[in-house]
Amino acid sequence: MTTLGGRLVAEPLGLATSVLDVSWQRFRELEPTALVGDVAALDPAVRPSGDAGRRALFFVPDTNRLSGALRVSRRLGEATLHGGAYASRLSQTGTKTPLQRAARLRGNDVTTFSAHAAADVPITDWLGVDAFGKAAFRNNGLPQGTALFADDNRTQLAPFLRQLRDLRGGAELVAAPMPGARVAAGWRVRDVDRDLEYPELVARDGIAQRALRPEVSLVRGDATQHAAYLRGHARLLRRTRVSGEAGFEWSPAIGMPTDLEKSAYAEARVSHGVRSPLPLTLSVFGHWRNGSSDGFELASSFAGRSKDKDYERRAADWGASVTAVPSDATTLYLTFTQQWDRRRFPHLRSNVPRPNGAAFLRFFVDSELGWQSHVRVLALGGTLRLTRAVDFSLGGWLTWADGRFPRGGQSADALDPPNEIDLTYASAEAALGVQVRPDLRLGLAYRFDRYRDDARLDEPDLDGHDHAVTL
User: Domain containing 319: what range?
Assistant: First the structure.
């Protein structure tokens, strides 16, 4: 990966402070393209038919990305205004697969635009209003009319996401009942509009083709979510700070079966500072969420054969961290987090595959399933300033991740072995930074990763190391 960029800071006509960032990134895999036919040449049991031998396996395309971000801020009296915009274009370049070349694929890109604004407006000395808004737009530039991919030549099965529009906004009333304390009541909304292009039921040759249609698709076009919440923070006894938030979210329309139609959540954090004998900051935090949905229907033309993909989720996590400053040149940290996730949903099955169409489909509940996961992360490290211009940092992470379908039914017993997670992941990183001059910094870094998955007998080798040079 190669990155080139620059930053411009200006205050045009004294109206507002503006920061413009522009960067260009180059991603190259530097590995040969492996094809299904290459595997067939090594294993006689693999016999691809038609063009299948020319399909790529684990192909990572070479890409270039050009992006820019603009941030603007200004004070108007006692009010503070912030705004900005972002644009990015990620495009495939260089190596193409044999099927891409045969289809004469000329363009394959994703373009993203976004803009945001926020305002902090005081009403009195102890009361104010905060508001924000953000709009994002994403366009998929993959041509949908080639021999490689089109809606009427049997190459498209599922809906194609052509465009995505994401609107977010919110406002809150903020009060300061006492020095060092803030309390806020707010509301926020998010509306997502997906422009989904579905494959045709009849191909260009006049013969019916398999196609996932909207009534049996697991992705819907529109989704809307509202949230009402209370939050606050306070400083107690000078060195103790507490903060928390609790709220309720509801969705008039959901876009996927795993979206929650209603949920309640709460989060809190407590930090305490100690001055002697060693400067320390102790922090404890936690999050909790419980929600469900029961309005995502898979439709059938047969009476009583339409079914809802109900979904329930309960998640919680907590953690603790210690940060120490034994000297002016040294900072040390230790963090531990633990996460639990429990989900329940019906295992829906159909008499024929969903792309066969609603006219043939009959859905039925096979069994009630659940998924549960447990993740623990331990991180420690530190930073040492060797000289006024040179600093060194060292860090390490150890992660234990477990996930499984609870046993007890035939479907759960069949699904659990290939999907079970029993992963141990260790990582270590070292970095050296040199401040060559006030506006120029050189960075060198090395990282080593090691994985062990006890749930898989054919575990692939995911161990690796990375080197990085930044300027």
Answer: 248-470
> Is 272 contained in some domain?
yes
DSSP three-state, residue 442:
strand
- What does pLDDT average to in each consecutive run of 10 residues of the chain (471 residues)? 87 83 89 76 76 75 93 90 96 84 85 96 93 97 85 88 96 93 96 94 89 90 96 90 97 94 97 88 97 90 87 97 93 97 91 84 88 96 94 96 83 81 93 90 93 72 81 78
The reported pLDDT for the residue numbered 263 is 97
Q: Is 199 exposed, middle or buried (0-12, 13-18, 19+ CB in 10 A)?
A: buried
Distance, CA of 401 to CA of 423 (rounded, Å) = 5
Q: Contact at 8 Å (CB) between 384 and 329? A: yes
Type of residue at 10: A
pLDDT of amino acid 162:
94
Three-state secondary structure along 343-394?
EEEEEEEECCCHHHCCCCCCEEEEEEEEEEEEEEEEEEEEEEECCCCEEEEE
Name 209's Cβ contacts closer than 8 Å, sequence gap at least 6.
152, 154, 199, 200, 201, 202, 203
Residue 79 located in a structural domain = no
Domains in the chain, number: 1
Q: Which tokens in the block code for residue 63? A: 């890409």
Please report the beta strands in 29-146, taking only residues with DSSP state E, as ranges in sequence order. 34-35, 56-57, 62-76, 79-93, 109-122, 127-140
What is the Cα–Cα distance from 363 to 350, expressed in whole angstroms? 4
SS3 251: strand
Question: Is residue 333 situated within a structural domain?
Answer: yes
Helix (H) or strand (E) holding 415: helix 410-419
